[in-house]
Amino acid sequence: MRSVQRTGSGQSRADVRDAVTVSVAVGLVGVSFGALAPAAGLSPVTTMAMSMLVFAGGAQLLVTGVLAAGGGIWAAVVAGLVLNLRHLPFGLALARHIGGGWSRIPGAHVITDESTAFVLARTDGEPGRARRAFWLLGLIKYGCWQLGTAGGLLLGASVPDPSALGLDAAFPAALLAMLVPMLRRADARRVGGAAAAVSLTCAPFLPAGLPVLAGLLGVGAAARRARPGGVQARAGTSDARCPGGRA
């Protein structure tokens, strides 16, 4: 019992540490967004409202980029919606870890790429660990994103190009770090490789956001699991029909 408690306590501390690490990286991306938003014509109030109500780094940066390039507001909104379509399969994958009832509303709001990778990497631990990890990361990450956006607004005037500092690389680097442990499984490597190949192939031809959705086709590379005990069950049935080797 004590060893189980120590294991659970160690996992909890590791989850807190990892959640804080990921959230700090997300906050750095928020700094980048907050610094870039005014250049795209967004007011500080609109920028903070987008971070609180949308809470999707990729979509927010895409909307900012479209506006900065001279695109209209509707083009920016449609581009953000298309990019966020990837949250539909994320929600299906995490539904059982969010809880039921009204908790699904705030839970759906904090589902992101990082949450999906973070939680699915912890589904094989103690019961309830994945759900605790989901809410832990969601709350810390939400707070860090708001702080990062506010900090970016304050620093935007003194740092005209946040990408020159590498802040735009913090998000994909953090996500990759979470995915690496999951690649120990052969089926995960097949799916990841196929998804990457499809996305890279489509990237030159499809608008931003669609290659990510096309990468979902990589799920087809997953092998079908053999039913445990299938051979033994069939052998046992045969033996039962033929006791002593006779029909």
TrEMBL record:
Name the keywords, alphabetized: Cell membrane, Membrane, Transmembrane, Transmembrane helix, Transport
Listed under GO cellular component are: plasma membrane
User: Where would you find this protein in the cell?
Assistant: Cell membrane
Q: Where are the transmembrane segments?
A: 20-41, 61-83, 134-157, 163-183
Q: What is one process in the GO biological process aspect for this record?
A: L-valine transmembrane transport
Cited InterPro entries: Brnchd-chn_aa_trnsp_permease (IPR011606)
A single Pfam family it belongs to is AzlC
What membrane topology is given?
Multi-pass membrane protein
Of which family is this protein a member? Answer: Belongs to the AzlC family.
Q: What is this protein called?
A: Predicted branched-chain amino acid permease (Azaleucine resistance)
Source organism of this protein record: Pseudonocardia ammonioxydans
